[in-house]
User: What shape does this take?
Amino acid sequence: MKKVILCLTASVFLTILSCGDDDSAIGLTPVNIDPSEEVFLDPTEISKNLIIDGGSRITGNAPSSNGSLSFTINKEEQSAFQKNGFSILLNAPTNYAGSYIQIKNEDGTLAPDYWDVPVGVKSSKSNHKKRKVSNKNNDGDIEIDVDFEDSVTAGRFCYVICIYDEEGNISPAEEICVEVEAWGGNPNLIGTWNYTKQVANGITTPVGEINFCESPGFINCNNQETLIVPEDKGWCYASTEIKLELNADGTYVINDFQFQKQSFIFDQSISTCTIVNETVNDEFGSKETSKGYWAYNEEKEEIILIEFENTTFYFDDNFEDSYTEEFGELHQMSGFSLLNGSSLVISGLDYDFTNVTEYHFTK
Assistant: This one.
């Protein structure tokens, strides 16, 4: 699951800024802090309403440190989202075996239980994309995916985390606080935004030109050689219209009308072991609709789109393909942005969540 903390590591939080220090100078409504986000939540209720696949909730306090085992973690306050939750990122030694996590409130009161999250347990809940609970990479980076039950509302809490290794050593604990964002927020964002262009790697792509490609990555040719197929040599599509609708109730809808412009001819490419493309005259196209919730961070002036439903309707075949995400997915149009009256620029990521891409909109 793509969570907001993943965006932090890639510097793709979306920030809404005006051109000056005074929003009212350019006709923007001042944004007030949502008081519900400042309320500390009951640690007992939070602990029993976490969802950590592969983790176990155990009565009592987490085991204490018993040695010199150490790990690193960003201790800045995190943002979390209702249902979608948050991710815990840390860097641990190669013999890392798991983490202990205990919820805490503002006066230091701990929940009456803690979570034991061993390494390497994979989630089975994903409907569309791969999710992971605690995945150890070769470089020691660990990600723990934490989701919420429906009962977790906007507010604040902290958690204490320590790690343990395969020999039973336990590290000292670190404390991180979390703000669960309320849905919606900044009234200046409410309305329908019309996509005009995108900019990536210094290249500007106006609306109507190819803005998305996908490829098989590589193919095994008939002559037993392997042919690498770059994305822009695969199947390519152009968005002729994208509308981003941000509603006052915290919901959002994105409608993306797409037409195929290029095809990758698989059989010929395998036979010749060269990339064979063909121009496509797509007269019907398709409409992709993304639905979910958006949240606004008043202190950091940030907005995040969390997708819970995605539907693509193919007009030629009168066919609909859809999926839902129970806990939501981060939408790629979340990232650093600039709001100036009737124009909005979102420096999010591309469809693969790898390259920074500016999305330009007007009202």
